[in-house]
């Protein structure tokens, strides 16, 4: 049995989805109606099955005790949701002032062009192809400017590449040509900026209203 779908139980999917939007494992466990110990057991089971952690906790810093999905956990959740491979998907709270935006779980925000009830929880996606990449801040019409640290460059046979970067503790992917990689001198460890218009941030199926 090697297919992830044969191992991921509905509870596992709900727990991973909760970890995407909740600040830590305690809150995520409460959101899906299980104890923290059971949530720890489910995550340990996933780590044994898939050869690595689906989520990691963080001690100290500005958000002590925070738990975040790992790249493996994100892949498992995306696969369970049926998301297109490589699509950037995040969850957060919709607010209208000073402009329509989604305040993401764990920090960060995205300007958006869609409407939703004030304070509701929404999930959004941004295609890797929607980002414009720059090495320094640029004066563009795009409302979203993500300051990132590059972690990996995936080269494709068709002459394009996908950048994997860290943005405020979460992974983000951007697609561009090999020529742009060379021209901008993009490589792991360097800082860059990813720009996306508000209209490029689309809403996807929402998991329901946020608790206060």
How is this structure best described in words?
This protein is of the alpha+beta class and 212 residues long. The chain folds into three domains: 4-81, Arc Repressor Mutant, subunit A (Orthogonal Bundle), CATH 1.10.10.10; 88-126 and 199-204; 128-195, OB fold (Dihydrolipoamide Acetyltransferase, E2P), CATH 2.40.50.100. Helix content is 25%, strand content 32%. It has helices at 10-21, 25-32, 36-50, 71-81, 178-184; strands at 55-57, 67-69, 88-95, 101-104, 109-111, 121-126, 132-134, 144-155, 160-167, 170-177, 191-196, 202-204. Strands 5-4-3-6-12 form a five-stranded antiparallel beta sheet, with no helix packed on it. It has a five-stranded antiparallel beta sheet with strand order 7-11-8-9-10. Strand 3 and strand 4 form a beta hairpin. Helix 2 crosses helix 3 (36-50). The longest helix has 15 residues, at 36-50. It is globular. The N and C termini lie far apart (41 Å). Residues 1-6 and 206-212 have low confidence and may be disordered.
